[in-house]
Amino acid sequence: ASSIYNIPRAPPDRILGLTERFNSDQNPLKVNLTVGIYKDENGQVTTLPSVARAQTVLDQHEELNTDLSYLPISGSADFQSNVLQFLFRESAPQGAQYLDEDRISFIQTLSGTGALAVASKLLSLFVTKTAWVPDPSWANHCNVLQNNGFKDIRPYPYLKNGSLNVEQWLQELQNAPVASSQSNPQCIILHACCHNPSGIDPSSEQWTEILDTIHDLNLIPIIDMAYQGMDTGDLYKDAYLLRMSLDSQRYCWPNGLFLCQSFAKNMGLYGERVGSLSVVTPPDMTLKPNIDSQLKKIVRGFYSSPPGYGSRVANVVLSTSELKTQWFEDVKKMHSRLQSVRTKMAERLNWNCFSEINGQHGMFLYTGLSPSQVGILRENHSVYLNSDGRLSLSGLNSSNIDYVCDCMQKVTD
Ligand code: PLP
């Protein structure tokens, strides 16, 4: 019999659950290194100067911000043209040809997670229910795919003893018992840069090998670009995977290519939920209108239309050249602080599992600490890391870095 009593308790979110515990911790030395939110040297979450200036522009120009009616289902038209321009002409000029041929279906989404959710729903309804996800990966990937109809989620081995293992990864794809094919494709999640949680990314030679294999196997790439700008500090540079995949001399993606993109980290618009989904379609003019219409139908059933304010902020930043220049500076500054914290950690901590610290990218440091060491750090020292050993660098600053390093040294001695 079915009843409301059939609803079991779900485990707490692996990351957000820790913040709840942190908040009730009474230790004055406590340090929260769990969530990927940028904090400045004073431990504050601040608004990026470019974003603050965009907000002032919105305040001063009432006409830009007084219309609180619904946005269209697929988001604001301005957002669409600004973001397409930013992604497919500036970040990846290889995309211009697809724009000119009107082959990119686009919707404004509830940040990167919303893009992944809508993409998975579309794929599972019409194309495939099988997805390859790196092991390890962002914990929410499987959750989002499962919630949106994926039945077969296959981990591909990303790391071996803390290092990237491309050979094993590609072998796993090639030797799968049920292979992907053009008439029966499977999809694969790729972290565009700053792999979460490891911070370890393939080199461009390795990406070529990976993309060649994925292309040969008729896998559908889902590029998850949540950290554009946090890899090198240069927003354009960091879109390298997008540039490589859109090289039409080399790849044709007969079942499309999906890009899930987020302004959460690089504009600091976390809670405003600003991002996008782009589907690069094969060169058949009947496809894009079909996909456009299905994306709208999915969004209508999920949440009807996206929120307005954050996309208006992003529009002002992206379409005002002075603010855009400022934004590039802001991102560079965030990156350089994270990089200096990473370097300090690498200097302070000198045991085996840290050999790769300086080769890691992005907001996190993948410590190699075991779940039980992470547990001791939390219980005995009030230093909070994710159970997979991932540490958010932005939570560190001159007032707590020594304490954290001492504690980490203690749990590994
Ligand atoms: N993908 C990865 C790998 C992430 O780490 C995150 C955020 O932590 C996201 C996607 C999506 O984040 P958001 O929905 O806040 O844009």
TrEMBL record:
Keywords: Aminotransferase, Pyridoxal phosphate, Transferase
The keyword Cell inner membrane is annotated on this UniProt entry: no
PROSITE patterns to which the protein is assigned, alphabetical: AA_TRANSFER_CLASS_1
Pfam families: Aminotran_1_2
Assembly notes: Homodimer.
Protein species of origin: Lachancea mirantina
The Aminotransferase class I/classII large domain, residue ranges: 30-406
Keyword Coiled coil listed: no
Family from the record: Belongs to the class-I pyridoxal-phosphate-dependent aminotransferase family.
Additional note from the record: In eukaryotes there are cytoplasmic, mitochondrial and chloroplastic isozymes.
UniProt-recorded name of the protein: Aspartate aminotransferase
The protein's Enzyme Commission number: 2.6.1.1
One Gene Ontology cellular component annotation held by this UniProt entry: mitochondrion
Alphabetical GO biological process terms: L-aspartate catabolic process
Cofactor dependency: pyridoxal 5'-phosphate
Catalytic activity: L-aspartate + 2-oxoglutarate = oxaloacetate + L-glutamate
